[in-house]
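Why do we care about 3D structure at all? Because function follows from shape, and shape follows, mostly, from sequence. That is the central idea of this module. The next example makes it concrete: a single protein chain, its amino acid sequence, and then its structure expressed as tokens.
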Amino acid sequence: MAKKPPSDRTRGASGATLRELHERVKRNRQREDAAGKQQNKLAHPQNRWQRAVRYNWDKNRGRG
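And the structure:
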């Protein structure tokens, strides 16, 4: 049986190691989460009634 190479040496499609790809994805995810939190602070919070109406509206239009 062939021995598997360590994950630090395995290369992805871009030529980067899997560890480097993992770190890039982790940083991008943190940046996107931080940007999303800022956008959500600007939006008005929906109450329970508004969420129920939006849910039913989307469901009847075939989006849910």
